[in-house]
## 1
Amino acid sequence: MRVAQLGTGEPEIAVVAGIHGDEPCGVRAVERLLDDRPSVNRPIKLIVVNEAALERRIRFVDEDLNRAFPGDPAATTHEGKLAHDLVSELEGCLAFSMHSTQSHAEPFAIVNGVTETARDIVPQLPVTAMVETSNFAEGRLFSAIDTIEVECGLQGSETAAENADRLTRAFLTAVDALPGDTVRRDLPVYRLTDVIRKDQADTYEVFVDNFTEVEPGAPFAAADGEKQIAEESFYPVLMSSNGYQDVFGYSAEKIDVLETQAVAD
Ligand SMILES: [Zn+2]
């Protein structure tokens, strides 16, 4: 784990990259900040987490780090120990953690609850949606540390790296660490309700777009040509044919739209 700092004093904000070793976009954003060394109004901690997995360009060495929190110093896995070390390092910080996916090119935010912090900061980020995943929080970083996660785009793409840079700067501006103003936008909020499982098969297909409502009766995915039909309407989130081993993604409900006027006062 690599830990660096911009500014002096005890940081209360942290930028976290490389929780997953096959998602290099956030690391690029952190390296760029370290190269540019912008002058900051508040100290910022910068962390590149899973260096062993990043070197090998694999998601994890022993187990998924974002299912391993809070971790344990006596854990037998690399990620079990790393989770504990990261939590110690982030104690007292609001963390901004960057990820990328195989399912959706447009950046969106993931939070563990629609808290005051989330309502204030996320509409100032260049994201198209906020997803509340408290039903599926177990083992994730934000179950242990106050965290805003962002999905920056498609894994390994140049666009995801550019998005990671823009998202980080918007976050740091929103928390008054960098000077300047952010743009607030209306933001739809979704809550994950279910996992969409997939059966063992040779080929997988997904017929729907993330964040676009699926009507009851519509086929939304298939395993070896066997179609899955929506029983009730839902919004697909993190859906992709081959992104995860045993799930297509998640179903969600739309719970709110945060409007700029409502959060401005
Ligand atoms: Zn990730």
## 2
Amino acid sequence: MHASEPLPSAKPVSASRTVISVVALPRDSNHYGFVYGGTVMGLVDQAAYAAAIRHARQTVVTVCVGDITFLKRIYVGDVITVRASVNYVGRTSLEVGVRIETERMRTGEVEHVGSAYVTMVALDADGTPVPVPPLELETDDDRRRCCEAAERRRARLAQLGRAGRS
Ligand SMILES: CC(C)(COP(=O)(O)OP(=O)(O)OC[C@H]1O[C@@H](n2cnc3c(N)ncnc32)[C@H](O)[C@@H]1OP(=O)(O)O)[C@@H](O)C(=O)NCCC(=O)NCCS
């Protein structure tokens, strides 16, 4: 985007919400039959990427994966569902919140097994960060997540010794 181009118009959180479901296979697991953390992290990155590019409609790259937690083990045969939505938009970066759930197929029991916050940056063809559309907050949950993400961003940038621009 060139400086003379108008800023993109706001997009609602719902427009980029992303859900990915996969069956956990033996190749995803260690010899105990538990799914590797790296397998789950790959799914988290894919879901965050899809949500971010649906919002930005520009090339996006992962710059930071923060606060990733694994609360419970995932077993071979479970369906892993990863839900991603844009929580916060800065100037060129976005925070995507990711929730990881499993479904035990014999019983239908669904559990929240982990979460992560992924910061992605939109780039132009030269690899320079470019502005992303503002985020339209539609629900109380959207507003709460946005406030929490703004606080995480402030803390993260302060820790890095960087000043936020918005
Ligand atoms: C993404 C990248 C272009 C940013 O470069 P940069 O010189 O830091 O660019 P800027 O200073 O203009 O920052 C761009 C945005 O990223 C944010 N940012 C940069 N580093 C960050 C970090 N460590 N954590 C969170 N946000 C960060 C800035 O706050 C800024 O956000 P804003 O525009 O919304 O205010 C560069 O770090 C890069 O290319 N990284 C590699 C990305 C990649 O290959 N990912 C896949 C890895 S496996």
